Amino acid sequence: MNQPIPTPQARERAAGLTVLPGTPLADAVVQLIRPVETPSVFNHSVRTYLFARLVASRLALSAGLDYDDDLLFAACAMHDLGVASDSPHSERFEVEGADRAAEFLIGRGVPAADADEVWQAIALHTSPGIAERRGTLCTLVREGVALDFGGPLGADHIDAVTDEQADSVHAAYPRLEMIRSLTDAIVAQAAKNPKNAPRYAIPGELLRERDTFGQTRLELACRSSRWGN
């Protein structure tokens, strides 16, 4: 069956999906992460935000009413800051990224309570079943991350993204072998200090699986996910 040709209105809506907040805070976050993350990880971080907004729409959550869009962008965009090239790499990457993000936000005048919300969302983004119980911001960041993995991290909202929407997002922010690139970064960070790789935590298990098998179960699972690598 032939696929319907998108109308100009549909193409305009799809293009609008990739618009970032454009606020001074969001621009500062981009300026912080772009130079210190690989293009693949940077694109993943931005796609996490774009997918998180689609989950918010599906859950009938409104920016400005149910969540702060600037904080959502900050949490999504900085959620992998712990593997950035200029990080100290002395804590597990989720905590290190959360610490850096909170410090950055407070330095930009964001209230401590809001910075702590972002801290929780980043620190818990690899903790399914916990993040979802810590408020809207934690839930949206976790679901945005899961959506960008295409299924292996949880598929509760995988159908929140249409093929047309996905094509628009990936055209603006290509995947660039994200799974391998991000796993490489997490494993390299984890290998630098035993504190970075606690047993049964995501960084610890990725490191051990790479050392033992040469690849991780996550990488294998993502090959057959909705987006692939």
Summary keywords:
229 residues; mainly alpha; globular
Low-confidence stretches: 1-12
Count of helical regions: 11
The structural class is: mainly alpha
CATH class term of the domain at 21-174? Mainly Alpha
Largest sheet: none
CATH architecture call of the domain at 21-174: Orthogonal Bundle
Distance between the termini: 27 Å
Order of helices and strands: HHHHHHHHHHH
Mean pLDDT: 89
Q: Rg, please?
A: 17 Å
Question: What is the CATH third-level topology name of the domain at 21-174?
Answer: Hypothetical protein af1432
Strand content: under 5%
* Secondary structure: helix percent: 55-70%
Report on the structure:
- It is built from eleven helices and no strands.
- By secondary structure, it is an all-alpha fold.
- The protein has a domain at 21-174: Orthogonal Bundle (Hypothetical protein af1432), CATH 1.10.3210.
- The longest helix has 20 residues, at 39-58.
